[in-house]
Every structure is written in structure tokens, then in C-alpha cells.
Amino acid sequence: VAALVIYNWQAACVVFVVLGGFYGAVHTLFQHRLSALGRMRWDANERRYRLVSEALGGLKEVRLFGRERWYAGEFSRESDTVARASGRSYLYGISPRYLLESLAFTLLVGVVLAVLMQGRPLTEILPLLGLYAVAGVRLMPALQICYQYLSTIRTNTVAVYGLATLFEETGANTRSLELPDDRGTVQRLSSEISVGDVWFTYPGTERPVLTGVSLRIPARSCVGITGPSGSGKTTLMDILLGLIDPDSGSLAVDGKRLDESSRCAWQRNLGFVPQQIYLVDGTVAENIAFGIPPDRVDPAAIERAARMASLHDFIESLSQGYSTGVGERGIRLSGGQRQRLAIARALYHDPDVLFFDEATSALDAETENAIVESIQSLAHKKTIVIIAHRLSTLRYCDKVITLDSGVVTRTGAFHELKT
Ligand code: ADP
């Protein structure tokens, strides 16, 4: 740049105006198209991921109903759109370079021809032409890079704003990145868990799911929560687990209100058995000591948990005992064995409180009975909270709470509820 300006500043100005103008015009011309391509790619990518998760999540139904072709076709269509949008935005980014190169060389040849036709000696303009040729070789790629990055930014702005909106909606940008350690203090339960006048509405919805729920769960008792589907049972359990905060009202453990600082200590004292356990493609032992680094796994705790979940004898009967692989997603285990494994996992760190969320509802009556008996064997050793649709699951509970549309409609012993 300095050499051009020193040699002939007027000509240098003309070059900058021409080059800058060219890229400016191209950018103005392409910017809306680039944004549209970015949006197209974002939307198609979203649909593509949704299709994959739907197809793999419901693989059995997909295969059974012969929907593979449809899913594969849709996936292929969306992938094509993503590829086309990516290709085009890249093309918009690089094409001005070739256009400009052709123009510049045409101009150079044109100037040489004009000088020759005028019968002037070429040596007159050769130094200037040489300087511009060298400057062009150095300057054009630099300008091209600036333009290309600008067009990449333009295409990806859609994704950046899309993610920023998601972060804002979920509050992820304000949350601390510090992740809790699983080895801190544990808040033990000695007298009771109490929930006082809890109200909760899911973000983005109008109707409250829990409307003034109050209940008490004495330590080492077994409490059942029942009620129609959608009555707020899972939401109430999530509040008890400290996974969501009530909008108003309180959750207290031994009379002490649970807050941000005591939440992790409370969660370390909880075991949770979901309706469907997530199994990793590893050994039985790895699945019981889920998410614990191999050097910290305690084999004695695994065996104790398996015995408490009435799973030890079955594991011993396997060819490699605790080192037997369960297969992808526990494919080699029956539904009942999987739920026992879930109970063993919940018991691994010897928590005081165990939560069961519809843990037996997917099982046949006989298996469910066997599991309920196993849960019963834990009664009065642990505090147990069971959500169940079927009343028979709650037959050993000391107290059964009925929820309806977010309100506790009945609290009583199991035999009182049946009447
Ligand atoms: P239950 O466990 O008794 O079937 P839930 O606690 O799962 O009931 O749900 C209670 C109500 O809250 C339902 O109407 C459900 O649609 C709504 N709900 C549950 N989870 C969410 C969520 N993440 N966002 C919005 N609404 C939800």
C-alpha cells in the first residue's frame, strides 16, 4: 500500500476505490441471499437432527411399520438442503475472486494494448504496470479473505442469533459454569421432609401445575403419590429432588429450608429410580456404579446395592458375574432385571431417601409384584417415595397422597384410600 501511494497516490486511490467498491457492491448484492441460505441450513439441520432422534428413538416401530424408507428419504432430502446451502454460501464467498482476477488481467492487457496501439514505447508504463501487478497479487487475496469471512459471518449470523435466543430462554448464559462435585457433604435426613404451600408453573405456560401443595414425609416412612395422569406427580417429585425450584412455597429437610447452598448436599442423599433406566453398553458393575470413574468404584458397595435390590443371585448366575456385559441399552436383560438394576444403581451410594417414579408401571403384574416386594424389604430402613398409577403398587405405603389437577385431594393410609 505504502509503495503504491508513494509512487502515484492518485492512481492508488483509484485502485482502492475500484477494489473496495467492487467488493462492497458484491457484498450488498449477496448479503440477503447469504442470510437466506444461513436460515435454510439452520432449519434443515434442525429437521435432520429431529428425524434422526425420532427414527432411532422409535426404531422398533419404524422397522415394524416399514417406515425406514420414509425416514431415510426425509433425512436424505434435508441433508441435501444442508449441503446445497453450505455449497452455495461457499460459492458466493469465493466467486468474486475469480471475477476480479479476470477483470484485473483484462484491464492489464487492455492498458498494454492501448499503449502499443498509440505507438508509445512500452518501457514508459512498464514500471507502473509492474508495480500494480505485484500490488494486485498481494492486495487482492487480502481483500478476498476479508470479503469471504464477511460472507461466512453473514451466513452464520442466523445460527448465532438462534443459539443466543435459546440461551436466553433457558437462562444458560447467566448460570454459573461450576459443576457440583459428587464427593461433597451429604445432608442426612433424620426427622422429615416437608413441602409447604408449593406453587409451580412451567415456563412458557399459563396454567399452574401445582397449586398450593403441602405434605410431610416422615423419615424412614414409605409414602405413595397417586392421581390421574397430568395431575402433577412428576413435577412434585422433581421439586422434592431439588431439580426444579417452586415459584412460591418451600421445601424443607428436617425443618431447614432447602436453598442453593444445601441443594447439592441434599441431592447426594437421594436415590432415584425412573420408569425406564438408561443403561450404558458396559458391564453390570459399570451400570450399577453409573458415572463413577473406574478407580473410585467400590465393589463392596456394588454387591451391597445388588443384594438390597434382590439382584445379587441373578448376577452370580451369569457367566462372568458382575463383569457380564448388559448389551446395548441392556438388551440382554429382562424388564424386571433392568428395574432391579435401576434400584441397585439408586442404592449404590447408600442414600437415605429413595424416589420411584412409575418405576414398575411398564412391567407385567407378576414382575411388578416381585419388585414391589423388594421395595417393601427396604421399607423403614430408607425413606421411600413412590409415584404410581396402579394403587396395588402402593399397598405397603404408610401413607398415600392423591393429587388431582395440582391439588392434594386425599391423604391417608392405603386401606382408607381403597374405600
Ligand atoms: P403426572 O406425573 O401426574 O402425569 P406431570 O407432573 O408430568 O404429571 O405433568 C403435569 C402437567 O404439567 C401436565 O399437564 C404436563 O403437560 C405439564 N408439563 C409437564 N412437564 C412440562 C414441561 N417441561 N413444560 C411444560 N409443561 C409441562
Topology at a glance:
Elements: H1 2-7, H2 9-57, H3 59-64, H4 68-117, H5 126-170, E1 192-200, E2 210-218, E3 222-226, H6 233-240, E4 248-253, E5 256-257, H7 260-267, E6 270-273, H8 284-288, H9 299-308, H10 312-317, H11 335-347, E7 353-357, H12 365-378, E8 383-387, E9 399-404, E10 407-412, H13 414-418
Parallel strand pairs: 3-8, 3-9, 6-7, 7-8
Antiparallel strand pairs: 1-2, 1-4, 4-5, 9-10
Adenosine-5'-diphosphate (ADP) binds at residues 202, 205, 209, 227, 229-235.
Describe the model.
The protein has 419 residues and is of the alpha/beta class. The protein contains 13 helices and 10 strands. It has helices at 2-7, 9-57, 59-64, 68-117, 126-170, 233-240, 260-267, 284-288, 299-308, 312-317, 335-347, 365-378, 414-418, and strands spanning 192-200, 210-218, 222-226, 248-253, 256-257, 270-273, 353-357, 383-387, 399-404, 407-412. A 6-stranded mixed sheet has the order 6-7-8-3-9-10. α2 runs parallel beside α5 (126-170). The protein starts with a helix and ends with a helix. The chain binds adenosine-5'-diphosphate. The site of adenosine-5'-diphosphate has 11 residues, from α6. Adenosine-5'-diphosphate binds next to α6.
Q: Look at the helices and sheets and give the structural class.
A: alpha/beta
| Helicity level | 40-55%
β-strand percent reads 5-15%
Low-confidence stretches: none
Number of strands: 10
Radius of gyration: 34 Å
Biggest sheet layout: 6 strands, mixed
Give the helix tally. 13
CA(first)-CA(last) distance: 93 Å
Global mean pLDDT: 87
Bound molecules: adenosine-5'-diphosphate
- What is the chains' assembly state? single chain
Biggest sheet strand line-up: 6-7-8-3-9-10
What letter string, H or E per element, gives the SSE order? HHHHHEEEHEEHEHHHHEHEEEH
Shape: elongated
